[in-house]
Design goal:
Layout (H helix, E strand, L loop, with lengths): L16 E7 L6 H10 L11 E9 L6 E9 L9 H5 L4 E7 L6 H12 L9 E6 L9 H7 L11 E5 L8 H7 L15
Parallel strand pairs: 1-3, 1-4, 4-5, 5-6
Antiparallel strand pairs: 2-3
């Protein structure tokens, strides 16, 4: 699933830390995603009242090259969402985590996703939508998630990819980050191997 982004590879400067923001409603699994990427293990978390940040060096495309990512995991409670704009300013990519089991809140997640991607400063910023908790029996299918989140209605300048995942065991996270390509030319591989 995605919006037909090309598979071209570009060179990433190994000296620059790419700014990636992890957003989503509270209890979607954002912090679990962050620490699974950072430590490659499950870390028991509590609701984020502000933000968590980690710098992570990753290999790019299975090669010996590495890139540095600076992840910002921002709390998803309603009172914190107005602050998201401050974190996405100058972001190289957005990871938007959605709870695939909580069908009642998908509409709320859709509203927030569309609101943040429509900001002028976020035009062209790639979005990896992580359909978290896919391991659970009552999770929505990818087709249902794509439809309910109205991903096809995102701006044509917003590259996106919808990835099924289970953040607790890390399933799908690596695959998702290899599919999304960052917007205009220079950062096409920025989410390549988080």
């Amino acid at each position: 699933m995605g919006n037909g982004l090309s598979d071209h590879r570009s060179l990433l400067p190994s000296f620059k830390a790419l700014h990636i923001v992890i957003l989503g409603l509270d209890c979607a699994g954002k912090t679990t995603v962050l620490y699974r990427l950072r430590f490659n293990e499950f870390v028991n978390t509590v609701p984020t009242k502000g933000f968590n940040t980690e710098k992570i060096k990753v290999s790019v495309g299975g090669s010996r090259r590495t890139a540095a990512f600076h992840f910002w995991d921002v709390g998803g409670q309603e009172k914190l969402r107005p602050l998201w704009r401050s974190y996405t300013r100058c972001a190289d990519g957005i990871v938007f985590v959605v709870d695939s089991v909580d069908a009642e809140r998908v509409e709320e997640a859709k509203t927030e996703l569309h609101k943040i991607t429509r900001l002028a400063e976020n035009q062209g910023v790639p979005v990896l939508v992580v359909a978290n908790k896919q391991d659970l029996r009552n999770s929505l299918s990818l087709a249902e998630m794509e439809s309910m989140l109205a991903l096809g209605e995102l701006s044509n300048s917003t590259p996106w990819h919808l990835q099924p995942a289970c953040a607790i065991i890390g399933e799908g996270l690596q695959e998702g980050t290899t599919k999304t390509r960052a917007g205009p030319e220079a950062t096409r591989e920025l989410l390549r191997a988080a």
